[in-house]
Write a structure and sequence with these properties.
There is one protein chain. The two termini are about 20 Å apart. The longest helix is centred in the C-terminal third of the chain and has 13 residues, at about 310-320. About 25% of the residues lie in helices and about 25% in strands. The protein has 2 domains: about 1-150 and about 330-360, Quinone Oxidoreductase, Chain A, domain 1 (Alpha-Beta Complex); about 165-305, NAD(P)-binding Rossmann-like Domain (Rossmann fold), CATH 3.40.50. The protein is globular and about 65 Å long. Strands 3, 5, 6, 9, 10, 17 and 18 form a 7-stranded mixed β-sheet that branches. Strands 13-12-11-14-15-16 form a 6-stranded parallel β-sheet, with helices on both faces. It is of the alpha/beta class. It binds nicotinamide-adenine-dinucleotide (NAD) and zinc ion (2 copies). One zinc ion binds next to loops. This is S-(Hydroxymethyl)mycothiol dehydrogenase. Keywords: Metal-binding, Oxidoreductase, Zinc. One of its GO terms (molecular function) is zinc ion binding. Its cofactor is Zn(2+).
Length: about 350
């Protein structure tokens, strides 16, 4: 059987998104059908709609979601109908060379549903990050459903992408340890989550860098101890001045542009770590003095999805949220209806929101 639901579709590069009828098949082997309760608007959705993540239009957007499993394929045993789940976009395979060597968070063969969701005329949809959750229901691989205790879905869903990426960049990739100094460049949802992660890890000094004073003000609520507006001052000089002239132990680049990466490279102390979690656009390049790459030592890392393991990290973070130690609610700037995603992109672009969250 196929169900008809409403979903947010990007039909063509740079065209405004539209709400369309989406045909969702019943789950087959290895699949789960999820009733979506809430789904955050992430910068990556905008990248899709702008054609920066390939030309596979039409896309079914949305990927930061929480919901309830409605049905599962016959061979699925890890999740069951009625489970409250956060959707993840890296369901590990358990068989690739990364998984076999015991590093499943690097899995090179993550999987998605095999059946396609379609437009009413039968055109197959490409779901954003293999999820497609700006829809009343979505079909995913069962491994993309991580069961967690039931909490506010608008908040929990954000752990499914941006917040996990930021928290994980600090907690898993760097990893920040207590007493360290940290700078975070770019204070959107991802950067503020990195700040919250550094705060959880016990960093002594957390310097937030952004071009927008409103974002810097918000960054303080997540744990930033100092802020630098890099539109009006030189972030490298400011970060050095705040750390006895040395630079910080860890710099997290949550923008992903040549200039921010360069700032991150130069603003860290000797033997420090740079973590790139912002996603660069195709064609961007960076030039670094090779002698400094050697002479400064330390590590230059990238963070895919915060190097997370959803089964390990989502329940742990939901637990910290329930204890009041991780403020997920402050990331939810507003809740919106399914037909307001295009408006939410405009607000994101104008820097007015951390996250708009579609509720169903
Ligand atoms: N690595 C991952 O797995 C992963 C997951 C999700 C998102 N991302 C990426 O993380 C990045 C941030 O996502 P977001 O949702 O927080 O975006 P966002 O648009 O909400 O926030 C970006 C922030 O960076 C600031 N900014 C932009 N240019 C800057 C500059 N030159 N210097 C300082 N600050 C600058 C903006 O003012 C804004 O506050 C995006 O590139 C997104 O694609 C990565
Ligand atoms: Zn694998
Ligand atoms: Zn995202």
């Amino acid at each position: 059987m196929t169900q008809e639901v409403r979903g947010v579709v990007a039909r063509r590069k740079d065209a405004p998104v539209s709400v369309e009828t989406v045909l969702v098949p019943d789950p087959g082997p290895g699949e789960a059908l999820v009733k979506v309760l809430a789904c955050g608007v992430c910068h990556t959705d905008l990248h899709y709609r702008q054609g920066a993540i390939g030309d596979d239009f039409p896309f079914l957007l949305g990927h930061e979601a929480a919901g309830v499993v409605e049905a599962v394929g016959e061979d699925v045993s890890d999740v069951a109908p009625g489970d409250f789940v956060i959707l993840n976009w890296r369901a590990v395979c358990g068989r690739c060379r990364a998984c076999r060597r015991g590093q499943p968070w690097y899995c090179f063969d993550t999987h998605n549903a095999t059946q396609k969701m379609r437009l009413a005329d039968g055109t197959p949809l490409a779901p954003a990050l293999g999820i497609g959750a700006f829809a009343e229901k979505t079909l995913v691989a069962a491994g993309q459903c991580t069961k967690v205790p039931e909490v506010r879905p608008e908040a929990a869903g954000l752990l499914g992408c941006g917040l996990m990426a930021g928290l994980g960049a600090a907690l898993n990739t760097a990893p920040v340890t207590r007493g360290q100094s940290v700078a975070v460049i770019g204070c959107g949802g991802v950067g503020d989550a990195a700040i919250a992660g550094a705060h959880l890890a016990g960093a002594s000094r957390i310097i937030a860098v952004d071009l927008d004073d409103r974002k810097l003000e918000l960054a303080r609520t997540f744990g930033a101890t100092h802020t630098v507006n890099s539109r009006t001052s030189d972030p490298v000089a400011e970060i050095r001045a705040l750390t006895g002239g040395f630079g910080v132990d860890v710099v997290i680049d949550a923008v992903g542009r040549p200039e921010t990466y360069r700032q991150a490279f130069e603003a860290r102390d000797l033997a420090g770590t740079v973590v790139l979690v912002g996603v660069p656009a195709p064609g961007m390049t960076v030039q670094l003095p090779l002698l400094d790459v050697f002479g400064r030592g330390g590590a230059l890392k990238s963070s895919w999805y915060g190097d997370c393991l959803p089964s390990r990290d989502f329940p742990m973070l939901v637990d910290l949220y329930r204890q009041g130690r991780l403020d997920l609610d402050s990331f939810v700037t507003e809740t919106i209806a399914v037909d307001e995603v295009e408006k939410a992109f405009t607000k994101m672009h104008a820097g007015e929101v951390l996250r708009s969250v579609v509720v169903f």
